[in-house]
């Protein structure tokens, strides 16, 4: 066992156990054990299992991002305080005050990267399993994890739409493998862009969107899909399927969170309030006895915000009963 396999040892066993388990279940349900679609469904089962286990981390990430949203006004004050100051002492003080603010709020500016970083060992473990399966089928290596010689050979020799699961765009001359790999690479890169874009544009307040950290994340929106497209030509078809399915999971998960638990001050929150208003509910989803009261409150809040932006004085809103008396 090489150094890389030693590091990935627990992740290889986890991936192989899930794949073997789903393969056993699917064949017992009547699917052929030599079909590539059996292994595709097993890979989808691996994605679902892994992402379900990462759900507590996802919840922690959402809470951390909400805290980041709440500290944006204070962060803007710190940035304005040290704007234009390039000396070492000012930069050190800026970093100390910034991270002190994050620490007091219990926010982690790197929380958005945690799900991807945690998934990477499982991703590389699957990559090793696929490579070893091909080597086992050719008699060049021993199977890894819980894979037997028979299972590794079946995976390596199975195909979907004429493309082998262990085939790659760059190292396989088969036209079916190149076409399927190219389609999966495009879908994988596009879904990666959509997940990052909807998080930035829909679930961040204007203050948070204009912060330096957000600007760096905006660069990643365009860089990451390119990175995946460039490196994807070396990935086996099965690995491209794994990452594409994982991206679709992330898209659905983010859509649910953004729609039902939007960040304060974001465009998604405004849409959420409008939906609740149409249903006669307040922002917490509680049914109001008098739905018109919510509209009056929203109108007063919008008027106050408009007057504040204009630098004028707020006009005290009047209820319908007071208006009729006058």
UniProtKB/TrEMBL annotation:
Residues 300-315 have a biased composition (Low complexity). It holds the Pfam family 60KD_IMP. It is a multi-pass membrane protein. It is found in: Cell membrane; Membrane. Residues 317-326 have a biased composition (Basic residues). The chain crosses the membrane at residues 7-25, 37-59, 179-199, 220-243. It comes from the Bacteria. Residues 265-326 are annotated as: Disordered. Keywords: Cell membrane, Chaperone, Membrane, Protein transport, Transmembrane, Transmembrane helix, Transport. Residues 39-258 form the Membrane insertase YidC/Oxa/ALB C-terminal domain. Residues 270-282 have a biased composition (Basic and acidic residues). Belongs to the OXA1/ALB3/YidC family. Type 1 subfamily. Required for the insertion and/or proper folding and/or complex formation of integral membrane proteins into the membrane. Involved in integration of membrane proteins that insert both dependently and independently of the Sec translocase complex, as well as at least some lipoproteins. Aids folding of multispanning membrane proteins. PANTHER family: CYTOCHROME C OXIDASE ASSEMBLY PROTEIN COX18, MITOCHONDRIAL, OXA1. Interacts with the Sec translocase complex via SecD. Specifically interacts with transmembrane segments of nascent integral membrane proteins during membrane integration. This is Membrane protein insertase YidC.
């Amino acid at each position: 066992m090489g150094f890389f396999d030693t590091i990935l040892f627990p992740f290889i066993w986890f991936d192989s156990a899930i794949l073997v388990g789903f393969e056993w279940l699917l064949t017992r349900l009547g699917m052929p054990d030599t079909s590539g679609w059996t292994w595709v469904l097993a890979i989808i089962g691996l994605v679902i299992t892994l992402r379900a286990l990462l759900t507590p981390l996802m919840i922690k990430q959402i809470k951390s991002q909400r805290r980041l949203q709440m500290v944006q006004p204070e962060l803007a004050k710190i940035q304005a305080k040290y704007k234009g100051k390039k000396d070492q002492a000012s930069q050190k003080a800026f970093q100390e005050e910034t991270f002190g603010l994050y620490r007091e709020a219990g926010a982690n500016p790197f929380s958005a990267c945690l799900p991807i970083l945690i998934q990477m060992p499982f991703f590389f473990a699957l990559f090793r399993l696929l490579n070893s399966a091909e080597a086992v089928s050719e008699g060049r290596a021993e199977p890894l994890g819980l894979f037997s010689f028979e299972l590794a050979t079946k995976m390596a020799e199975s195909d979907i739409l004429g493309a082998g699961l262990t085939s790659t765009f760059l190292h396989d001359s088969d036209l079916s493998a190149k076409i399927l790999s190219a389609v999966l690479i495009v879908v994988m890169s596009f879904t990666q862009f959509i997940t990052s874009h909807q998080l930035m544009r829909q679930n961040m307040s204007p203050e948070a969107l204009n912060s330096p950290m957000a600007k760096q994340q905006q660069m990643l929106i365009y860089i990451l899909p390119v990175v995946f497209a460039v490196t994807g030509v070396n990935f086996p078809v099965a690995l491209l399927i794994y990452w594409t399915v994982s991206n679709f999971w992330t898209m659905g998960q983010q859509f649910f969170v953004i729609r039902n638990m939007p960040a304060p001050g974001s465009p998604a929150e405004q849409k959420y309030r409008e939906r609740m208003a149409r249903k006669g509910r307040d922002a917490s989803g509680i049914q109001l006895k008098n739905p018109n009261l919510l509209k009056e409150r929203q109108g007063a809040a919008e008027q106050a915000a408009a007057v504040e932006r204009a630098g004028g004085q707020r006009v005290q809103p009047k209820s319908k009963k007071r208006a009729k008396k006058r």
